[in-house]
């Protein structure tokens, strides 16, 4: 069939056959289908969705549009985690070595930050010397030897997604759940994994604003995983406040090392335990989530996860002394300004605004070409539901290297202050202490 016939069939609510979807994705990949026809198909999918069979075929064709890693030479089960993106989300950095310390291989291909959410690669690169652009052979060698390696995507991973994503961005079709699910899964399945744990963020600072939409996305991603013969667990987690106390690359590495030393903020530890436990269950290293949680806790407490991380840093060219003395190894901002919140109860925190404030000071990028300042960011010692007393010490520290009087600092300060909703009613019940909303196994 011609592309126009496939578009018409989809537009009219028909179900495309496996061969038709594969032919269309092949045309997307080799460029033989022009932008206007790809865009029309995206809009037809946006309005009509995809049946389960269509989604599995479309995602599989996207996965196979480029290189699919062959990790069959690695004996351990290969399990990865993906997060839909949060503010202060440094979870992969302590999680991957902890899971590897429990006997599972974690081939982690991560992304860079864009907009208000940070990226694991940018965080790792704040460790002097750390390289994320290793060859595929070296990546496989390190996953085999150390149990974990963290790199960035090459242009050869799911090239169909690159073209589709760029077109979705300019045709108002990014929000389509089947398109989101197939975009994420095509890149993850190209890693050659056996199973995946998805951390699906829900709330103000997240891509998914409601739990209903998050559940729907998870259902579609599990359909794709099943079609590919992979196991998958989705953990829905609250993103109505930043994760941990830090936002910004080097600051988040410091906090990750606290976690790897058995400390760190309780919410961040909880996420590492919960996601790690599910990874161990998928990989057969724990009978259930409780047993998995106990194992993750143990390797964080006895230093074995930190030792895996030290080896990874060293093997990827970074300075392993960061594990012992992060404050001296990591870049430091020239200035640390303070901000004090007004007295009252913290009723809401706009994490997206905090992410953007950090970005404005240099911690993130507005466009892919922007350079980031690894030392810039925020330390936030203010929690949802907490009562701020009159005359309390500052709760927020702004790390930056902007020149005095730079307008960006004033802009960021105003955004940070406005991100906190302070209520004078001190009697409201405290919010749930747990970030884990739901686990879909
Ligand atoms: N992340 C992706 O990789 N793709 C999407 O469509 C959305 C988030």
Structural write-up:
There is one protein chain. This protein is of the alpha/beta class. It folds into three domains: 3-48, Transferase, Pyrimidine Nucleoside Phosphorylase, Chain A, domain 3, CATH 1.20.970; 79-325, Pyrimidine Nucleoside Phosphorylase, Chain A, domain 2 (3-Layer(aba) Sandwich), CATH 3.40.1030.10; 331-423, Aldehyde Oxidoreductase, domain 3 (Alpha-Beta Complex). 45% of the residues lie in helices and 15% in strands. The chain has helices at 3-11, 18-30, 35-48, 52-63, 92-101, 120-124, 136-146, 159-170, 177-189, 211-227, 249-260, 266-282, 289-301, 304-315, 326-329, 351-363, 407-419; strands spanning 79-83, 106-110, 148-152, 195-202, 231-238, 246-247, 335-339, 344-349, 377-380, 387-388, 396-400, 420-423, 436-440. A four-stranded mixed β-sheet has the order 1-4-5-13, with helices on both faces. The chain has a four-stranded antiparallel β-sheet with strand order 6-9-11-7, sandwiched between helices. Helix 5 (92-101) packs across helix 12 (266-282) and helix 9 (177-189) crosses helix 10 (211-227). The model has no long low-confidence stretch (mean pLDDT 94). It binds uracil. Uracil is lined by residues 180, 183-184. Uracil (URA) binds next to helix 9.
């Amino acid at each position: 069939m011609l592309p126009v016939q496939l578009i018409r069939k989809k537009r009219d609510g028909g179900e495309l056959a496996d061969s038709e979807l594969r032919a269309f994705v092949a045309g997307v990949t080799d460029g033989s289908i022009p932008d206007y026809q790809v865009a029309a198909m995206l809009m037809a999918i946006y309005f009509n969705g995809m049946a389960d069979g269509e989604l599995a075929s479309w995602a599989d064709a996207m996965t196979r549009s480029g290189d699919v890693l062959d990790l069959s030479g690695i004996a351990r089960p290969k399990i990865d985690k993906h997060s839909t993106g949060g503010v202060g989300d440094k979870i992969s950095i302590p999680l991957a070595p902890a899971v590897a310390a429990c006997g599972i291989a974690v081939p982690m291909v991560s992304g860079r930050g864009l907009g208000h959410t940070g990226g694991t690669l940018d965080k790792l690169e704040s460790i002097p010397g750390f390289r994320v652009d290793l060859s595929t052979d070296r990546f496989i060698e390190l996953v085999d030897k150390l149990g974990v390696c963290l790199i960035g995507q090459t242009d050869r991973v799911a090239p169909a997604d690159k073209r589709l994503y760029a077109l979705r961005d300019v045709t108002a079709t990014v929000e389509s759940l089947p398109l989101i699910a197939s975009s994420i899964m095509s890149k993850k399945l190209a890693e050659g994994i056996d199973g995946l744990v998805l951390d699906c963020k829900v709330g103000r600072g997240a891509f998914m604003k409601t739990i209903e939409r998050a559940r729907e996305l998870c259902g579609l991603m599990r359909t794709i995983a099943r079609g590919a013969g992979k196991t998958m667990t989705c953990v829905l987690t609250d993103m109505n406040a930043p994760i941990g106390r830090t936002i910004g690359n080097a600051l988040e590495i410091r906090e990750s090392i606290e976690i790897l030393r058995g400390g760190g903020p309780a919410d961040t530890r909880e996420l590492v335990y919960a996601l790690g436990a599910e990874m161990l269950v998928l990989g057969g290293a724990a009978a259930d989530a409780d047993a998995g949680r106990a194992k993750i806790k143990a390797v964080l407490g006895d230093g074995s996860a930190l030792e895996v991380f030290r080896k990874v840093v060293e093997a990827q060219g970074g300075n392993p002394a960061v594990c012992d003395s992060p404050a001296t190894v990591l870049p430091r901002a020239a200035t640390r300004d303070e901000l004090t919140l007004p007295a009252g109860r913290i009723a809401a925190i706009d994490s997206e605004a905090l992410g953007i404030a950090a970005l404005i000071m240099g911690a993130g990028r507005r466009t892919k070409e922007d350079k980031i300042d690894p030392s810039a960011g925020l330390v936030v010692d203010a929690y949802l539901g907490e009562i701020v007393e009159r005359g309390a010490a500052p709760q927020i520290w702004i790390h930056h290297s902007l020149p005095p009087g730079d307008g960006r600092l004033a802009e960021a300060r105003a955004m940070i202050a406005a991100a906190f909703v302070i209520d004078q009613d001190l009697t409201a019940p405290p919010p749930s202490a747990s970030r884990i909303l739901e686990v879909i196994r």
